[in-house]
Each structure stands twice: as C-alpha cells, then as structure tokens.
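Q&A log
Question type: sequence-to-structure
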Amino acid sequence: METQEIVNRVAVSGIVSLDLEELYHPGERILYDIKDNLWQGMILREKDFREFLKSHDWAQYQGKNVAIICSEDAIVPTWAYMLLAVQLEPYANAVVFGDLDALESKLFADAIHKLNPEEFAGKRVVVKGCSKVSVPVSAYVEISTLLKPVVQSLMFGEPCSTVPIYKKPKSSASSSTD
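Response status: OK
Response body:
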C-alpha cells in the first residue's frame, strides 16, 4: 500500500498572512482629563493653567501614549489642548485629542503607515481577523486602503478560511483584435 504525502495547500498557496496584532504598540496608555485643571469644575483660567504647566512633572509621561479629554461639560479653549500637547510632545510616544479608543486608532494608523506597501505588491494577502489584543476596526480600514492599490487580492480571516475583500481585475490587454 502506497502512502500519499500530505501537502499543506495553504503553505504552498503563496498567500501572505498579515497579523495586525503584531503592530500593537506595547507602551502604557494614559487618559489625561483636563477637568482636573478647571476652576470650580466649569472653566479653565489661563493664568492658573499656565502655572500648572510650568510646575507639572511632564517627564512622568516618558514613552507613554496619552489621550487628552475633558469629561466635564465645560468651557475649554482650543489653545489649552494645544498647550498640553506641546508639553507632552517631548516625552510621550503619542498624543491625541480624544478617548483611549482614538488613541488606539492613532497608534495602529501610525504603525500601518510605517509598512512598505511595495512588499505586498502583486501578492495575495490575508489580513488576520483573530487577535489576542483588540485591534480597532479603523486599523482594518487603514490597511485595506493602503494595500488595495498594490495587491493581487486582499482577504480577511485565516488562510484556510477567508472572506474575499478585493481582487485585482484581470487585464484586458490580452483581448484579440479583428
């Protein structure tokens, strides 16, 4: 009785698996709530705020990822967020206006834009769907728009079970002429 060799068809298919989880930035996430700087919980007083900015230990944000919000329904001028960003920038890995979800989206977007799309040119790419870390939907949108112009095909899921997202149209250059 002859035994047949078992062939891993996924391995020989030429499919490239892209795991967005590998782009996760491991740094600490911090939510900076400007409500703590409000006078009587209602308004931001410029003089007090500037004093705070001078005396605060900004080095504690070294390498961290910071989302800036105001959780109170208060009058906070735009320049206040700008001043915070300027103070945080030399220390923090990333600074965003918004909640922790907005921060996560930015971290993934930054990592995706560091990828070289030409490495995927003409390839069949599967973007993995299951991760141990939470990958925001925005990252899947971002990777789709980055890869669509260069890939042969784009799929979602696992190489053995995919959902087709995009397939490059066949070239019409091979059509015959009369």
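Response note: The longest strand covers residues 161-167.
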